[in-house]
Structure formats: structure tokens, C-alpha cells
Amino acid sequence: MSCPINKDALDKLRQFIDVCKSNSSILHLPDLKFFKDYIESLGGTVPDLHKMSSGPKVEPKEEPEETVEKPLESDPESELEFDMTGCVEPDKLDDNQKMGDSSKEVPDEDADKADEKRIEAMSQLAEGNIEKAIELFTEAIELNPHSALIFAKRGQAYLKLTKPNACIRDCTRALEINCDSAAAYKFRGRAYRLLGEWELAAKDLRQACNIDFDEQTDEWLKEVTPNAKKIEEHLIKKERKKKDKEEREKLDRIRKAREAHSRAAQEKQEDIPMNSEEAPTGAGMPGMGDFYKLLQDPEIMTAFQDPEVAQAFQDISVNPGNFVKYQSNPKIMGLITKLSSKFSGSGMNFPGFPGGAGAGAGAGAGFMGFPGGFPGAEMQGNPPPPSKPSDEDNLD
């Protein structure tokens, strides 16, 4: 006996079976419950939805650990204790501390006079006439504002008057002129020590010893080293803690990103559409969404609850050739005709569907929304009788 199914309908039926094989989760759709129940009534088993793996395995959600932020380290001076013996109150800068005209071109005559003033000032400084020495150093600076030595020596004089800020100003200017002035580093380092700037003091005094070692500079350096070392070690520790904190924050950002990715993957898997409107269209199965909409019709769903109907359709789906057994069954053929009518009248545009409510059981009526009609609608070797031409088909 030849197969009572037209080729197009048979292809569509194969496509539906392929979809079920590739994604059996669609059998858990509420609209296909009758089909699932019937498979199970025959002794078949539909895989449990929760045991299927249609996507990557996602670990269970874990509550993110709370990150306790530790307070930032405060300034070293607020935590470290120093021996402030010998420190003084900062002095205010004196407007009479003239710095000379740095743009002046110094003739040889002025340079010579500046040297004479410097020598005289150093004599006054040695005799203890500090104010007079500062006055002479200032005159020398105005004659030659490009001498680092003169600025360094006036800085030394200000240091003797316990004016550390004035000393720092002069020595900084000296270092701008000559970056290798050991005297400028020495006296500025001592001035920083008087202000309690231990780290800066140690830095300048070390540099002075490196350029031109002398015992007084070395003694001053040893005096500030304990406090300076405390600060340096504390800053190293603070920097290390800062880097550790940044690394923890980086790892925390990575962890949160991974958790977000994991949650998104899990939510995507949990959001597998389980209603007919969102049911996926199988690969190579155009119109599956419309097929599910068609099956939502209460009248059709009720018809499929009839065991006789369900068994017949299951029998035909297993072997399309079995369709011939039900051609004389008005209940089965009536449902096929109704499916064909609803499918055609719904406006669904499935390729190969003949359409028309009056197509009848033997005219390719659609089964379960398959394009091209239900298999067996046109029996091979027994074609349907030709339809009577309408008035519009009359030929002249």
C-alpha cells in the first residue's frame, strides 16, 4: 500500500518531530499537555524539564559577602610620637629679605664688590654681629644676585637668629642657582629640623654629606634620623596598605562581575519561554509560533482531550500511513476539517497550506497547524474529484 501522505505535509511532520527531538522541553508547554500525556500513556517518557540541560551549567546563587571597609590611615604625625626638643615656632617672612634682581647682568666690577661685602659680612658673623652680617650679605646680593654662596651664607645668618623660614628661602634660592651647593643643603636641612620637618631635614642633610662631608652636618643628620626613620617606615607601611586595599577592591570588582554574569546566565536559562506566544520557532520549522496560537483555541483543546481523538492523532504521528484507517471516522475527520478551517481563516501565512474552510478532510486539511495540510489529506493513487468550476471560471 502506498503512503497516503503528500510530500509537503510529510516534510512538515518530520520537521515537527525534529523540533521535539532537538528541544523536548516544548512538550512541557501547557498547550501540548495532551500530546505529552498521550506519549506517557503509551509507556513513553518525556524528560523532566529540570533535568534537561539546554544551556551552560550555572552554579547556585550565592549571597555576596559583605565587604567591611577599613578606615584609611591618618596622617603619620597624628599617630607617631616624636621628640620635639629643640623645635621652634615658624617665623614670618620678612619683607626686608631682599632677593636681588635675578635678571640683572653683573659686570665684573659689581662681582668684585659683592665678594668684598661677603668677606666683610662673614667677619661680622664670626664676631657675633649677626644683624650687621645680614645687612652686608644683602648689599652683596644686590650687587651680584647670581651668587649661590652669598645666599647660603645669609641663610646661615638667619639660622643663627632662629629664623628657619628665612633660612629656607635663601638656601632654596641658592640651590636654584647651584644645585650642588653643600652649604645650602646643610643650612636648609638644619632649618627644617628646627621646624620639626624631620623627613625633609634628613633628606637635605644626607645630600649635604654626599656633596661635601663635614662632622657638623653628620652630627645634625644623626640627630634627625630616628624621627625621620619613623616617618619613612610609616609611609612605606601606609603605601603598602593602600596597594593592598586597591588590590582587594579590584578582586571584589572581578568577583561581583562574575556573580552578575552567573546570575544573568541563570536567569536566561530560567526564562525559557513556556507559553505558546513565546514558544521558540524550531530550526527549519517556520510558523511554529502561529501553530501554538492555533492550539490555544478552547474548542480544539477540548477535542484533543477525547481519548479516541488523541489516540488517533498519536497513531498517525507515529506512522503517517495510518491516516487511511480514520478516513471513515467522522469525529477524526471533522476535527481535521475544523483545524483546516481555523488555520485558513486565521490569516496565518504558511507556505503550501491550501486554506479554505471548505477544503474538507480529503482536500489537504491542516493537521495541528502543519503547513501543507495534514499528511494523508491527498491520497496517492486516489486523487480527490475535481471541483465544479464556478461561474467565474467559464471560458468564452
From TrEMBL:
Keyword S-adenosyl-L-methionine: no
Disordered, as annotated region: 46-116, 239-284, 371-396
TPR repeat copies, ranges: 114-147
Any Pfam family: TPR_11
Alphabetical keyword list: Repeat, TPR repeat
Gene Ontology CC terms, in alphabetical order: catalytic complex; nucleus
Domain STI1: 297-336
One GO MF term attached to the UniProt entry: protein dimerization activity
InterPro entries recorded: Hip_N, STI1/HOP_DP, STI1_HS-bd, TPR-like_helical_dom_sf, TPR_rpt
Keyword Chloroplast: no
Biased composition (Basic and acidic residues): 89-106, 244-271
Described function: One HIP oligomer binds the ATPase domains of at least two HSC70 molecules dependent on activation of the HSC70 ATPase by HSP40. Stabilizes the ADP state of HSC70 that has a high affinity for substrate protein. Through its own chaperone activity, it may contribute to the interaction of HSC70 with various target proteins.
Subunit (UniProt): Homotetramer. Interacts with Hsc70 as well as DNAJ homologs and Hsp90.
Entry similarity comment: Belongs to the FAM10 family.
Protein name: STI1 domain-containing protein
The organism of origin for this protein: Aromia moschata
